[in-house]
Amino acid sequence: MSAEPDGPEDRLRRFTTIWSRAVYPVTSTSLTRAEFEEQLLPLARRLSGLLLAHGFDADGAKAVGAALVGAHCTDPEALTRTLDCVDAYLVLYCAGDGPQDEPRLRCSRLQHAMAAGYAEALRERTLAEQESIAQAALRAQGVVAEALHASEARFRAVFEGAAIGIGIADLDGNVLQVNEALLRMFGQSDQALRGRRVQDWVHPEDAPQTWKLYDELVRGEREHYHLEKAFNRPDGTVLWTNLTVSLLRDADGDPQYQLALMEDTTERRLLNLRLRYEATHDALTGLPNRSLFFERLEKALNAGDGQRFGLCYLDLDGFKTINDSLGHAAGDRLLVEVADRLQSCATAPGEMVARLGGDEFVALTTGPGTERKVDELAERIMNALVTPVSIDGRDLLVRGSLGIVEGPAGERTAAEVLRSADITMYRAKSAGGNRSELADPEADARAITRHGLTTALPTALERGEFFIEYQPLVHLGDGSVRGAEALVRWLHPQHGVLGPDRFIPLAEHTGLIVPLGRWVLEESIRQARAWRERHGEETTAGPLRINVNLSPCQLSHPGLVQDTVDILERAGVAPDALCLEVTESALIGADDDLLKPLHRLAEMGVDIALDDFGTGYSNLANLRRLPVRILKLDRSFTRGMQQFPADPVDLKIVEGIVTLAHSLDLAVTVEGVETGAQAEQLRILGCDTAQGWYYARPGPPDRLHDLALVDATG
């Protein structure tokens, strides 16, 4: 039988029970524990909602913290136990069964906001108590003038019984009286404190206006003031207080004494400092985190004219492999060691190292001469990674890719600087890694444009921004048009017409190549049907055929064959009207499973062409097992034939390929034919068909129709 709660409400009540049991012993309330638990239930429900909300509601979390003060949880231990309980159990009981990383991060932020709300509410409550005591003291002073004995008794009761420290001094600053609470706060005897002067309590952390306000008060120019002040204790520790100082006047209204009310806020301040540290530092490495780094970077970028900055963005090469092979514990130890080494590289004034997350680190240098300093910092970082890191008896070689950005302050935002560094780092990684690269504005612009195109691709297909141009395939023997290759274009709203080299790699990377390729195939088949319906057998070689390129992603997609069959059947076009072009590089090392779709399509009557033949370094023996009927010879082999006389080496290569192809009953198509001499030479060598600007550039489908009619009519 499971001991876990059955539903969300049961889980919520279980969390509330754990919370109430932890906090109730340190709560000043007349409620029973069960009643106190019911009082916490709405707060727990609100925390659960904040944890699962779409956005982060800091004010809501602050309100929960403030509500604790309203529930008489004013002992600092109550806050500590609450935060421990939220950290340990809120995600467990309220986050559901999905991934835990995002709820964990949200829970941490909720704790910080709760602590802030708790501190604000507790401060307001204390100020109210202080004001009440101050008013009581003032009233007591007024009563002294009318009835000395009665007022002295009442004032003494307030003075001695107060939970906060109270001290009275004359206008010269001599301490006259202190209560027990103040003695405990300072850790001194009554005689020691009463021998002090107020002016002796100057502290380096005093706010600039502290002693100006004091002078105005003792001169009778103000009635009271309130501020945060630090005091040195005899044991060397620092006492932090909320200090309220009021002026006491005699019956005639003349200044007579000064009354100080002190609340010990040392523990609260330490808690806030701890929360601030945790919010701005990485828990694993102890380095500043992304939040603190951005604060420092923005400060450097807003430093004013003439100031410069330098930034190094480091990403470890192959870190995922270490995590996958040795485990995350080993990966964490590696990150700690790398963080220590990086920290030792940035010790000069104006330098800092931070961890952005994962295996990404940044180093910042500011001040004069950053052009030289950032290069030196980058060199120290790369040198620090040279020595292997020993983890569990294994020496791990650490490599890193480093992007460097340097420039004047005030020209770019922090986000723009970090984006440039990130782009530069990936440029170093693409170049092989274990190196550094300097930011290049032109390279940044290209990367940003590439990213923009990637994000615009899905909606571009939905909005119909793609169109197809057709380049004719001409028979070299009789000059007849045998068909055309479909070439997709993108009419981008900002960049104009883009060729496939600009967006096809992006589509392959994102997987959009499958729906885009399906659309190209469907449009091309529809166009092939239109050509056949318009001129049927009017050409000398019969109906025109359409060639469509097939990407590696499409080739491995399980729906390729069925999609092709469905498109052909819907269009009412026979399979022999279609030729699918597959690049040679896509078939290098292809196994039988990858070739099955091509074999099935070939058996149906679809022609398969091996595109860019000669560039993939494939074994020629592989041609025997490929369902290929056409070899498309890459233009690099025929470029030497554009001039007369032709390059003899190119002639021999092409002649050998043609002979091999024909011996295997394969046709040969040549790309990139640009001159008549080139076309004639290829005809003599026995090539079957060709395409290129010599015949026609890619264009609209009607142009191919016109060319076919010209061919038919002679």
Automatic annotation (TrEMBL):
Residues 225-277 form the PAC domain. Residues 307-441 form the GGDEF domain. Signal peptide: none annotated. Residues 450-712 form the EAL domain. Residues 151-221 form the PAS domain. PROSITE patterns: EAL, GGDEF, PAC, PAS. SMART domains: EAL, GGDEF, PAC, PAS. NCBIfam families: GGDEF, sensory_box. This is Diguanylate phosphodiesterase. It comes from Streptomyces incarnatus. The lineage of its organism: Bacteria, Bacillati, Actinomycetota, Actinomycetes, Kitasatosporales.
